[in-house]
Design brief:
Largest sheet: 6 strands, mixed
Radius of gyration: 21 Å
Structural class: alpha+beta
Shape: globular
Number of helices: 12
Number of domains: 3
Helix content: 25-40%
Order of helices and strands: EEHEEHHHHEEEEHHHHEHEHH
Length: about 350
């Protein structure tokens, strides 16, 4: 957030927004003015209408009221950090909790709603994770990608344990995107620690000698080890044919989450009893900026059934038709906040 622009509604917005982002921000600010306050918040000394003032805690004002205590109880039991901009109306972390927690708190009706995008989901496995879910999930404490520390590491915004119609226990990892234009790119490529010995092209050379990748050496992350270990997941010949590492840009986050899913599925540890692990992206129905990276990523997969995307609208529309009055009420609330 480096610039401030005033649009036709006289809202203080960051510069450089896409048409979709501007439309969404106006919707979120209008909701904020009606339901929270009209005061702008500060970021680096600048006022922005989409940011909460300091006296308004995001967990009190950006979460659907019936889930607030469950969210805080879960955070206390399975600690996770608030995102840097959790106090932003477009907080993807808050939107993710607002989308999934109401469904996981109504397990039977919620399972029926989730089934609209995950047809093999029969019921929530409430005996696993924290009553069937985790926020900011990673393979703790195993750290099979070897990339978790106090500052960084691969995780999924939401995880759901469930049983399919044959009684098999499965795990579903979900990355949530609201207004983002792209997934998280490769941190190694822009790292100050990267030297001339670290090369990202041609990709075939990196695959033959992963020491060329700064993630691999000196960081010791196991991304290439796991990629090269199992050709059932990735089309290794397609990856090798690329001139520049395809995981340099937005596909990097998709790659890492897919690797975590696969590592959990292949683990023999009793901590990970899941027969199959899936990875998905859920996004706002009008956010199409992520389609390119997702489509390109799919082209590199052999295990195409293990990755798919869907929109929040699919779940919200199903909830609006649910037999649960609580979910119907939540659907109306969610639409009022996030949809124009």
């Amino acid at each position: 957030m480096k610039e401030v622009s005033l649009d036709e509604a006289n809202y203080k917005l960051p510069g450089g927004l896409s048409a979709f982002q501007r439309k969404l921000y106006r919707q979120l600010i209008a909701w904020k003015h009606i339901n929270i306050c009209r005061e702008p918040g500060l970021v680096n000394g600048r006022e922005y209408d989409a940011v909460l003032p300091a006296q308004y805690r995001p967990e009190d004002h950006l979460l659907y009221p019936p889930i607030r205590q469950r969210f805080l109880d879960h955070q206390k039991k399975h600690f996770f950090k608030f995102h840097r901009y959790m106090n932003h109306m477009a907080s993807s972390q808050a939107a993710c909790a607002n989308l999934f927690l109401p469904l996981l708190m109504e397990t039977e009706s919620g399972a029926a709603v989730l089934r609209t995008v995950k047809p093999d989901l029969k019921s929530i496995a409430t005996g696993y994770l924290d009553s069937g879910f985790r926020i900011e999930f990673w393979d703790e404490p195993d750290n099979m990608l070897n990339d978790h520390n106090l500052a960084t590491g691969t995780d999924a915004d939401f995880a759901i344990a469930y049983y399919d119609f044959e009684g098999r226990l499965k795990l579903w990892l979900i990355e949530h995107k609201l207004s983002e234009r792209e997934f998280t790119p490769c941190g190694a490529y822009s790292s100050k620690g990267r030297t001339a010995a670290h090369r990202c092209s041609p990709t075939a050379d990196v695959m033959q000698n992963p020491e060329l990748c700064y993630y691999h050496n000196p960081r010791g992350y196991r991304y290439w080890d796991l990629t090269l270990k199992d050709a059932r997941v990735f089309k290794l010949e397609k990856i090798a044919a690329t001139s520049l590492c395809p995981f340099k840009g937005g596909m990097n986050q998709l790659w890492r989450n897919m690797l975590m899913a696969r590592a959990i599925e292949e683990s023999n540890s009793a901590a990970w009893p899941y027969e199959e692990v899936y990875f998905s992206v859920v996004l706002h129905p009008e956010n199409h900026s992520l389609d390119r990276s997702m489509n390109a990523f799919k082209q590199l997969l052999n295990a195409e059934d293990r990755f798919f995307s869907f929109t929040s609208r699919q779940l919200v529309d199903a909830a609006a038709r649910a037999d649960s009055a609580k979910l119907r009420a939540w659907a109306e609330w969610y639409k009022g906040l996030y949809y124009c």
